[in-house]
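Riboflavin synthase
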Amino acid sequence: MFTGIIEEIGKVAFIKNTGDAYQLSILAKKVVSDIQLGDSIAVNGVCLTAASLSSNGFTADVMPETLKATNMGKLKPGSSVNLERAIAAGGRFGGHFVSGHVDGTGKIIRKQQLGNAVQYEIGTSEEMMEGLIVKGSVAVDGTSLTVFEVSQGSFTLSLIPHTLTGTILGEKECGDPVNIESDMIGKYVGHFIKGMKCSNKTSISEAFLQENGFM
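Tokens:
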């Protein structure tokens, strides 16, 4: 489990791709300071397992399914990546519940400076849009953010200077792909509501949840 608060920007050292296997070697300092083999690290929001460790980085294997569902296949040596260790019990929880199981990808279609912040509009599929609401949480490349606006086929975020410099999102430009994980709690609630509708149980509805502050 992660929080979406990026701890460090790492660099891809090399990529081993043999067709049957895809392995990333990532240069990092902070996230390898107290982890063990087999621990989880979120790389651009994708939960990966540390397969080997050194004082200046780690390697992780990436499954073919992960390559299809995320932007990991776009990485190359020298690429910057957002890194976060799994949250420790009793640690500060500054973002939101992030599982590291990316739902899909989107593409930056607009980037605009507004005062001290930068607005990003991200286009994505209709299926992905179903999990996004205004003022709801979303993880973009593993970064916990608040949805500022939702429109047909896209959503808007507003990034403060700290997020722009402390994550790779500040380096992103229009056309760049990003990993998206919608709010975990929202997904469970949505799944539960759909199940209630399918079974004709109407005691809990979207209207009921909204009226009582759950949505």
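The longest helix spans residues 184-198.
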